[in-house]
Design brief:
Strand order of the largest sheet of chain A: 1-2-3-4
Largest sheet of chain A: 4 strands, mixed
Strand content of chain A: 15-25%
CATH class of the largest domain in chain A: Alpha Beta
Oligomer: homodimer
Number of helices of chain A: 6
């Protein structure tokens, strides 16, 4: 664990909350006058997590990619409280890109109008329902396994949609528990399931990440392959 | 004038041809094994200049902004002969942007199909005709002036559209010849004409740049104001 009292000079900590790949809500590790926190809030939307309180960090980054799935648009935004930091970010954008593509902005505005339709909760309720269904399905399948386990996520109160909300994460973080399954990604590849090895997330390769925010067709192919893999356990 | 024999280490020269703001075709100043040329070819299109030969430099940059006027799309491209330079450019783009906005690419492809319509020359002939008309108009107006002069541009053979092509530059580079008009941009501002001062182009402020690639309405307002300004000469 890092100890901030040992640092000299400025330190930046990137805090992804919900975290990737686990999906839990986390706080900064470092504190102190020399610590600057950059809060990666790309997954802090009601379809992925309960929203206990509105996000209110000093520097929060968001992406269209994670809000609606339009990753190809390459549109992001930030909420920045420090005017000096804001000005330097604007200056960087101005040097690097002049400005954002108007075509992208126009499409994003059109899509955001759909997100806002009704009481502004229709889109989030829809996306949450899909992800919640998938997580329940996966939890059920993995409950029969002794070889693999999923991450634990808690039910939390959501101040945006209201009520207690059971987990609906975007990723499954699977642990291959057998000594022989140290290369967990290979185990899944043999079962014709694409996964990202744990080493891509500063973890051991006895873990893999499965994406649950895929197209319905892909999820529908994942389910029988997972069942098949787990039914083979001896 | 720079003398390349004095340099130690690598030197980069940006060569804009046609030049901005004058619009003439220029060659690199520097030569030698340590010199890398980046050729800014954004205006090397038949609407702006005769094309004596196809552009064939080692590293050429282009922009959608100047090809069709869609500056807001922020789309550019490069032709790069050195595979190592290419790979580093790809790596930079990957780090900075992951990739280009798909929305922008889709719109650009749609517009490029219009550019290609017919024999591929319809768009260029149209745009050239507009700019040629504007340059003739301006040349005629300024021919009555002793106070101001325009840059000289030559008729050249165009291998793309065929035949000798008289100038059709995107900018007028106006010289205020009177000692009292050292702040040339102010003179034009008083005549309600927006210009860019010469200092923006490493020149003296007795020069200004006028944009001729404006909307028709703007050009139609420019003409009487210029005539008025020049008719006031005493």
């Amino acid at each position: 664990m890092l100890n901030n009292t040992n640092f000299i000079g400025d330190v930046f900590e990137f805090v992804a909350s919900p975290s990737n790949p686990i999906g839990d809500l986390v706080s900064p590790v470092l504190v102190g006058p020399n610590v600057k926190i950059i809060s990666d809030r790309v997954y802090y939307w009601p379809q992925y997590t309960a929203i206990p309180v509105p996000a209110n960090d000093d520097l929060m980054i968001f992406s269209f990619s994670k809000l609606t799935g339009h990753a190809g648009s390459r549109l992001g935004w930030a909420i920045v409280k420090d005017i000096n930091v804001y000005n330097r970010m604007v200056q960087y954008i101005n040097r690097a890109d002049v400005e954002m593509s108007k075509d992208t902005l126009l499409r994003a505005l059109t899509i955001l109008k759909v997100v806002e339709e009704g009481d502004g909760k229709k889109f989030f309720n829809f996306a949450r329902k899909v992800l919640r269904y998938r997580w329940e399905k996966l939890s059920h399948i993995f409950s029969f396994s002794k070889r693999f386990s999923l991450q634990n996520l808690s039910t939390r109160y959501c101040s945006y949609l209201g009520g207690d909300r059971e987990p609906s994460p975007v990723f499954a973080w699977v642990h291959c528990k057998r000594e022989a399954d140290k290369n967990c990604s290979e185990v899944f590849a043999e079962a014709k399931i694409i996964s990202r090895p744990g080493s891509r997330f500063f973890a051991e390769n006895d873990h893999v990440r499965l994406n649950l925010a895929t197209r319905q067709d892909d999820f529908d192919m994942l389910v029988p392959r997972l069942k098949q893999l787990i039914s083979q356990e001896v």
